[in-house]
Specification:
By secondary structure, the chain is α/β, with parallel strands linked by helices. Helices cover 38% and strands 19% of the residues. Helix 1 packs across helix 9, helix 1 crosses helix 10 and helix 4 packs across helix 5.
Length: 278
């Protein structure tokens, strides 16, 4: 048995440390390593993985959506979201799962931010945004504004929500301020501010529109304190970075890899301790 995480870039990923610590705590000698796989190389990778004993892998950018047509089966969450982050080899078939959404909700709840009844401004419409938006809706968010530079992508994401709680919006400053003013929680699922990404928010004035007591959750975990979070803290807003989401989705992914339930709080504590030691 052999586990990996694939992406491009991926060598900076903290997933090997997290999964390595959890596997060690379970007394399992199973390697978990990063593997650079560039866009367009997925078919070759899947063939290589099958031949070299890889029984499961996590996927990060740019593969979460590109994997869909290449897999044999999808679980309901992955099918609804239209993206996968966890793939397992089951009885000779590649099966795709998505733990991002459940991981995001678990991270919020762990920080005392129950999405139920909240209005949320969510930035982005990519794989992580889809998972988070649909999970927030399923968790009882009253409404989620999906703000994206490409309107068609925002509309396509919102159309996936069977509960009808997602609303497509633009990404210009005026729209962000209007959506923020009506939200108790702002969630960033774009790569703006990520280490290695040359792009940043043009300005942060939309944070001024958030009501007192609102929270800002940035799904980015590298760096741990993005400029968005720094600006939010400067304005007295509660903040949460992407590390708890990373931990929680990893615990759920490991359950899929091992095909059995785990003590989630215990595994989350192990994973968090591993991150603190880095």
């Amino acid at each position: 048995m052999r586990l990996q995480i694939i992406g491009d870039p991926v060598l900076h990923s903290k997933s090997p440390a997290i999964h390595g610590a959890m596997l060690k705590a379970l007394g399992l000698d199973i390697p978990y390593t990063p593997q650079v796989v560039r866009r367009g190389e997925l078919p070759q990778y899947l063939a290589w993985a099958r031949e070299n004993g890889v029984t499961g892998f996590n996927a990060t950018m740019p593969h979460k959506e590109d994997l869909l047509p290449l897999l044999d089966e999808l679980d309901p969450a992955a099918r609804t979201v239209g993206a996968v982050n966890t793939v397992c080899l089951r009885e000779g078939k590649w099966v795709g799962f998505n733990t991002d959404g459940a991981g995001a909700v678990a991270a919020l709840e762990g920080a005392g931010l129950n999405p139920a009844g909240l209005t949320v401004a969510l930035l982005g419409a990519g794989g992580a945004a889809k998972a988070a938006a649909l999970a927030l809706s399923a968790a009882g968010a009253e409404q989620v504004f999906v703000c994206n530079r490409t309107p068609d992508r925002a509309r396509a994401l919102c159309a996936r929500d069977p509960l009808g709680r997602l609303a497509p919006e633009g990404f210009d400053g005026e729209t962000l301020r209007r959506c923020a003013a009506r939200s108790r929680l702002l969630v960033n699922c774009t790569n703006l501010g990520m280490a290695g990404c040359p792009n940043q928010f043009e300005d942060f004035s939309f944070l001024d529109a958030l009501p007192r007591g609102a929270a800002v959750f940035d799904a980015i975990y590298h760096p741990a304190r993005t400029e968005l979070l720094a600006q939010a803290e400067h304005r007295g807003l509660s903040t949460l970075n992407g590390l708890p989401m990373l931990v929680n989705q990893a615990v759920l992914a490991l359950e899929h890899f091992l095909d059995r339930p785990l003590d989630r709080p215990a595994m989350a504590a192990v994973a968090a301790a591993a991150l603190n030691q880095m």
